[in-house]
Amino acid sequence: MVSKRIVLHFPHRLVNQPIVYKLVKEYDLQFNILKAFVTPEEEGLMVLELIGKRDNFDKGIEYLKGCGVRMQPLSQDVVRNEVKCTNCGVCVPICPTEALTVDKQTRKVKFDNKKCIACELCVKICPPRAMEVHF
Amino acid sequence: MKTIKEINEKIKKGEVVVVTAEEVIDLVQKKGAKKAAQEVDVVTCGTFGPMCSSGAYFNIGHSKPRIKVGGGGCKLNDVPCYTGFGAVDIYLGATALPDDDPRNKVYPGEFKYGGGHVIQELVSGEDVRLEATAYGTDCYPRRKIETLINIKDMNEAVLFNIRNCYQNYNVAVNLSDKPIYTYMGMLKPNLGNANYCSAGQLSPLLKDPYYRTFGIGTKIFLGGGVGYIAWHGTQHNPSVLRKDNGIPQVPAGTLAVIGDLKQMNKSWLVGTSMLGYGSTLIVGIGLPIPVLDEEVLNYAAVPDKGIYAQVVDYSVSYPNCLPGSLGEVSYDELKSGKIIVQGKEVLTGNLSSYSKAREICEELKDWIKKGNFLLSEPVSPLPQADSGYGFKMLKERPALKKEE
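^ inputs. structure came back:
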């Protein structure tokens, strides 16, 4: 089984298409929608956790690419600005997936972007605004 | 027994023994306070947290023709400054906001840019836009000025913070069923998180709880440069409940500090935005504690597990000034990442960076060891725990106009 968090960008012409339905029906993939919206540029954006058998997963991804959906792994989208971060740790109890934790030795904040689901709760509550989103 | 003068002699000779507020804990546990007090000359403490009563005054220099900004209006990067001084002296507060900032009209407001951010940009050496208006006089005829200005071109640029470095602070929680946005950060409903704001065992005023070794005139690390304690801070409240080890259980003493902004550093003065609350400035402060005797060292060696703070509800109790603590927790528990409040496990977050406070302790230690930083004798003590000096609430009275 493969499980990945990916960001899908749907071009304008695909916004009304039942793309995710096909992933379930044709490729037997499970999905968990973490975020979905239409941007001002009228592009559909969806953050999805996609789970399934390896070959189905790969076929599903090929299908998405064939439709014209752009995608990248989620971990590239939420970034910590290391210069701005003061390592205070006020974000730690806010993060729902423990992607932000305090290292017991250094007392610095660790950001594990593999655990991040891009909820963006940390972005506005960060006092020096060190958490950045680049969808 | 040692004097500050003797310690300074050792600094000059390169023989001084300096340890950080963290190192001193282990040292005293291993060697005992008596032996450690003979060996150690200075303990360095530090803190790095948001401190709203911060700001800086500037003398911007006289333009040709002259303008009397005093009594007029003045903005730096659109952030209004206080002008009620002489012709070209202004003061910029950390929480000042541009007139067109929406504040909390779009709740919770973001407060992306304010006085604290301007101070950080100035310290970084960036040009800022100065805009001033005046009413014009015979000797100061000009009515308007708009120019870029740089900190290095100003006559004086002085950080002058009227309340910094709180001796202990509350742990903030939210008992209501809605999220709230406070100066202690966003508090999730129903005890969703507990935020605290102290470097605990590194924090200057917790390490000399009776203010024995410092006072007015004490030289400190301020914003990455050298500063001085100018006075006790506003809301200084030394006469509070203390544990047997002398450490206040609630917010207590504070410092007013001053220093030349031009020699400070953007790493230690950081403009900050508190969602739904306002903008402010994170200030880095370091205090050297001269180990005058065993007692000084004993206080300096109290670890996080001997320092306690009160858990306070910020949904109803704090805004309405209702007394009452939901419990007392140690900084050791707070640093573990969770505490128990009303039987519920609550995750903790610190607004004050422990790792940065640690860096300040190390940096100050380095300055002293290299002979670049001599200790200063306090000119006068701060109001002491037995002074009766304290903090008053505002008593409101009907404000009738004279003719009424």
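The first strand of chain A starts at residue 2 and ends at 10. The beta strands of chain A are 2-10, 30-38, 44-52, 70-73, 78-80, 100-102, 109-111, 131-133.
thumbs up if we can close this ticket
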